[in-house]
Give the backbone structure.
Amino acid sequence: MIPINIDSLYSQIFHNAVVAIGVTDPQGTYITVNPTWCELLGYSAEEAIKLNINDVTPEEDRSNSITSFEYLTSKKGNSIRKQRRYQRKDGSIFWADLHASPLYDKDDNVIGLLGVFVNIDKQLHAEQVQKELMNNMEEVNRKLNLANEDLKKLSRHDALTGLYNRRVLEDILEKESNRSQRTKRGFGIAIADIDNFKHVNDTYGHDCGDMVLKELAKVFLKGIRSTDAMGRWGGEEFLFIFPETTCQGAMIVIERIRKKVESLTLEYNGLPIKVSTTIGLSYHHGDTESAVMITEADTALYRGKRSGKNQVICYQDSCTDSE
């Protein structure tokens, strides 16, 4: 076996290491540095031994650097590992992963510090890019989820009033009509139409008409019971669905709504707007298809329109049932 010269081996390791190695005295002045250190910081070995750690530390980081230095030289710790910034000769700055430890003499006195570090700028940049990509993906996903929720809502709700749209109302009608035919319990359908709505649009404009529709939609929705359903049927018409109720019960609800609309005074551009509504009701005990009931409610509605408006009309002429 060829004998190994330990001093020569250490020298080769020091000079050929792919990590930067720097040794300072207890005051932080460099004693020696390896070629990788010189390459990373832009100083020659001769220039390096005239430098202090503060000279290669950005000014805003020096306080933290001094704290770490004193931690090691005071024997409070045997080593530290931290990410810190170094400042090159040309003033540019890079991030490094630093391992530092004190060097002792035979009497256990600190005679210097050994610092070994690698440039992690590319790694941090890649991590930052990845983080930004993840944040962007999260934001995109959040926006997609919101867009999907909006699309889902738009598919079920009228864009102007926020009420159920006709498609949803038709689904509810089918469900409740089938239930009524199965149980033979009372089932009512009502159609409300805003009186003289064309006059409102012609006189004040369509923006005013939209305002009226939205305000009355609030009144209609607030006026129904938790078991009822309602939505915009089309134009200025609104549909009410009253499952498992009496005819009188349905009439009480829609008459209360009619009175609320009658007492309402809206305002548009400083002008008071008074409106009213006529409502037609059809009521059965599971013996009639919902399509027929819609026709009956519509017929009752136009009876009310022809006989003075601002009233509730039941197609069946009387509501005396107890169920």
In short: The chain is about 45% helix and 25% strand.
